[in-house]
Fold this sequence. Notes:
The protein is 43% helix and 18% strand.
Amino acid sequence: MKAPPRRPLVLVGPSGVGKTTIADRLVRMRPDLFTLSVSATTRPPRAGERPGREYAFVSRSVFEQMIAGGNLAEWAEVHGEYYGTPAENLEGLPGDGPVPVLDIDVQGARQVMKRGTGALVIFILPPGPAEWIDRLAGRGTESPEAIARRLRTALEELRAAPSFEHFVVNADLDETVRRVLAAADGHSGRLPEASEVAALCRGLEAGARSEIRRLEGARKERA
Length: 223
Ligand code: ADP
Ligand code: 5GP
């Protein structure tokens, strides 16, 4: 019997939750099953990022031409910069080749779902506020102001969590990758209940709000 066609995989969730790390792991472990979808963005490259590898880095006018030309499967403005998935990443996929893994924001995930691509969308959650804020800050590439801004956007993303169907809590990375692989294979495994997700999100929101207050207090003291 022929295996059912595999579905593009969308990882969504608040900044710093581990989406990029999970996507990289999946592609490294199973290049036969997954390939990274490289997005276009107008944000400047971070240290160590290479054009065409993490993103196609483009100007605002080039990005706007891509929108006008219908070249993007979805796009959104995040933290004041444009991000979008080239339509070709999701179209005309060979039946037996690897499927793209998209690491995109909530607005983009909604557009991908509406487009009828059959994508499996998984909302990734951090295990708790302390781990999450450590991960966000621990990346070491962001100023306190940028972290506070990411946390504010993340609060909005968390509010959108109940509108998604599949959740994985990224506590232990190996376990997370196993769960995502199982979900991509059509096995739901043990996924958190809606009430568990709601309770976790409340704790994360409270933690994010108090960290934003702390970062803003520290900024005022420095000024
Ligand atoms: P996102 O793409 O969601 O913004 P990243 O993948 O950049 O998040 O991860 C943010 C930080 O958290 C990175 O330093 C990464 O190494 C770390 N991280 C990701 N998953 C885990 C995990 N399960 N346990 C501990 N640290 C993690
Ligand atoms: P970063 O600048 O940290 O790489 O990404 C910032 C945010 O933009 C993350 O939430 C990431 O998931 C999102 N993002 C990255 N690429 C895309 C994309 O192509 N489309 C959308 N909608 N969001 C994206």
